[in-house]
Automatic annotation (TrEMBL):
One of its GO terms (biological process) is vitamin K biosynthetic process. GO terms for molecular function: prenyltransferase activity. It comes from the Bacteria. Pathway: Quinol/quinone metabolism; menaquinone biosynthesis. One of its GO terms (cellular component) is membrane. This is Prenyltransferase. InterPro entries: UbiA_prenyltransferase (IPR000537), UbiA_sf (IPR044878), UBIAD1 (IPR026046). It comes from Paenibacillus mangrovi. It is a multi-pass membrane protein. Its main location: membrane. It is found in: Membrane.
Amino acid sequence: MLKQFRKASRFGVVPVMLIPVALGALGAFVWDGVFNVWLFLITLVGAAAAHLFSNMINDLWDYKSGTDIAAKETVDAVSTNSGFLTNQIWSVRKFAAVTWGLFALAAGCGIVLAIFSGIWAFVFGALGGLIAYFYVAPPLKFGYRGKGYSEIAILLSFGVLPVMGAYYVQTSHLDLRALLLSLPIGLLTTLILFNHHFLHWQADRQAGKRTLVVVWGEQRALTFSRFLLLLAAVTLIISAIAGALPIYGLIALPAMFPLYQVYGKLKSHNTSHAYLPLMGASVKSTQLSGIIMIVCLFIQGLI
């Protein structure tokens, strides 16, 4: 059951949520000299549960809308869902029960944090939960609208909210440096989610899911993908200049270079499978950059 849960929830991608949480908590340690390990652990559990809920509610609604079925039946498409619904490994009822169980766990953690740190700890979590749900659920379904709403939602959910939320949990106040710190990791994570649309954009178009890749077309979307990488690098530099990161935090920049190299190997039009290296490099660059930022902040806190 544990092995099935890990696959159904796509547990392996949870570091993209845990990294910004760690950054926010370390910001409190470095700038304010405070760090409560128990509050940090509860924040980690709540954030992880919220992320896994997001993965599973996405699968649930994409299955109901026919998007995941279309991806499975399209020849030149790479399915990115868990496959537990499309392959009938779990029933919809069982899948939904686990999904909402994760939501309950995340909400419980949010309530505990609000009691000890302040109401804004719950507000940050609630905003993340609403974004996760309405990303694919009606009536909003802003992940289907192709107007950039989904990219903004990911930047908030995997950058601004977890970094600033984790910082607030430790200090019970907010700091502009936490916002600056959230932007490079948030943009890199947005890039992961944006690039994954290339793997099945024809199936998305067929199912009526209007991602920016569907709306703009492959060539223009690739240009925007490169722009997001540049923006992540620029915000990292700004964070270091503004003091949100130590100046040696700029060594996170080379971690983005392998992703830049992959762009040079892509043409104006590519098969879906040709984008697998781009996805792999996106995940690798995001995690490595985030880990380097964490290490640099930790070293600064010890000095």
